[in-house]
Amino acid sequence: MPSGKMVKFILYEVLQFAALIVPIFVIMERFALLIHRLKKLDLTVYWLVVAVSIAYVTSVTLLVWAPLKYVILKRPTALAYLILSTLPCFAVLIASSKVQVDMGCKLDHFVELPVSLVLFSLICVDIIERIRPCNLTGKSDSLNPDFDMPGPVLTHLEQVTTVSAQLHPNESQNSLTQGRPETRNGRTSRRWEDFAGSPSSRAYLYSSSSRSWSYSGPFSFLWWKDERSEVVLDSFLFWLDTAEMLRITGETSIFYSGWVFPVYILCFLSTLRIIITPQNPLLSFAGFFLQDLPFFIIRVALIAVFGNVTPVFYPLKNVLVSLTFIYFTFLTKLRIFNRRRMF
């Protein structure tokens, strides 16, 4: 009887291998059917293209994918997936557009299933890589130990030596006399009591986390959360902008024009972010240079040439993310933006 870890390992490997080969087979089959309809020949060309796809998948699996999985099971698998599956699929989609334009016949612009399948398989690979350290049954293990805090934490702080303690005895005595609480009718001033009880004078630092919420009432099930399900949601939200950019290629006016080249190239460059782990500081930098900035430029150009082929929401999102990245990363370090008295 195989252990639970072995079952999870086999399940993940089967899903990743399916995500590798299924998009290739689907797109190559559509491409083979397109060539058959354009050439108007017998099924020889069709089966030849299908045989090429089978030979490619077999050779890639035996020579690259299986040895890579045997040696390492870390993030480089995502890079191998991009090179072996996503890049060939995008190349076939660009080739299908070029072939139809050269033949002067518009039969198939590969909308819906092929493009969506490529991106969905990429998201599945991303989810598997992120959720691999977690258990599939029982209580979830924290994906980010830095935020695994059950509730508010009181951290004891050492007492800081005051300035008055470092002065000479005379100066210290004068200073303490001036800072002594005022006594009226045998009672200490309320202002001094407030100061003594203020957070700045306490020897504890109160820290809290968003994970500290709890509720034990009849609707406690509404408060339940699991990081494994959040990984799936975060992955789909992470690739939402790329999905919209790929949707633009489904427009007939764009697919049968030269604009399909930069759109697919920029989409592939944005997929390179899958190589970076979610907690890596390079992720925001890669998101700016590989997605938001180039996507904003290409979207503005597409709207100027073809009209409203994409919602205005997405270029606004790109420009807002780009501006905030530039401001908080670079401009805040300048002297004019580094004044604490401003705001």
Automatic annotation (TrEMBL):
UniProt key word Lipid biosynthesis: no
Keywords of this entry: Membrane, Transmembrane, Transmembrane helix
Residue ranges with Basic and acidic residues bias: 181-194
Chain ranges passing through the membrane: 14-33, 45-66, 78-97, 109-128, 254-275, 312-332
Region described as Disordered: 168-194
Presence of the UniProt keyword Chloroplast in the record: no
Ranges of biased composition (kind: Polar residues): 168-180
UniProt cross-references to InterPro entries, sorted A to Z: Uncharacterised_FAM23-like_TM
Name listed for the protein in its UniProt record: Si:dkey-32m20.1
